[in-house]
Amino acid sequence: MIFNIQRYSTHDGPGIRTVVFLKGCSLGCRWCQNPESRARSEDLLYDARLCLDGCELCQQAAPEVITRTLDGLIIHRQNVNDAHIAALRHCCPTTALTVCGEEKSVAEIMATVLRDKPFYDRSGGGITLSGGEPFMNPTLAQALFEASIRRAFTPPWKPACTYRGSTLNPLYRLSICFWPT
Ligand code: SF4
After folding, report:
1. Assign residue 23 a region: left if phi > 0, alpha if psi is -120 to 50, beta otherwise?
2. pTM of the full predicted structure?
3. Residue 130 has pLDDT above 50, yes or no
4. pLDDT higher than 50, residue 179
5. Cβ(113)–Cβ(153) under 8 Å?
6. Which of 13, 23, 36, 7 lies closest to 110 in space, CA to CA?
7. Chain-centre distance of CA 102, in angstroms?
8. CA-CA distance, 22 to 25, in Å (whole number)?
9. For position 177, what pLDDT does the model report?
10. Whose CA is nearest to atom 1 of ligand 1?
11. To test ligand 1's pocket by mutation, which of 49, 55, 75, 84 has the most ligand atoms within 8 angstroms of CB?
């Protein structure tokens, strides 16, 4: 599961890169920049500043989960199931309520990554996996790196990833350049 794909990143490794944020992390660091990435499953995120007065669309879509009050939303997270997530994913007109996390195939992710191949070739950039902790999902991480290598980004293509974890193999065999954090 991923929670974001950020194109044209210039701060997450050499050159111009696309950062794929995988969801799930077991560390819980106090300085975490992406706390919404910690859970392995989808989360509901709410920004009261964007919520519209008088709107009840989300409550109508999932009344077991959302209670609309004058002060904003009460989210009954213990009741959330897959049907609620589906009902709420595109419900809010202002993105005050969003679903964080989406299952995407390797092909779908790579279709986005490969849009910027000319920029990687010119700048020595490529793909960066972030999160979350990419090594919480080594199967997806390995598949993405292998798919990137198969698409033969022009050398010196340098994959980079943030690393705090213990699942090095089999990623290590892909000669990945680890980007210290
Ligand atoms: S749908 Fe969005 S704007 Fe409307 S009540 Fe829910 S969070 Fe607020």
Report:
1. beta
2. 0.78
3. yes
4. no
5. no
6. 7
7. 8
8. 9
9. 47
10. 92
11. 55
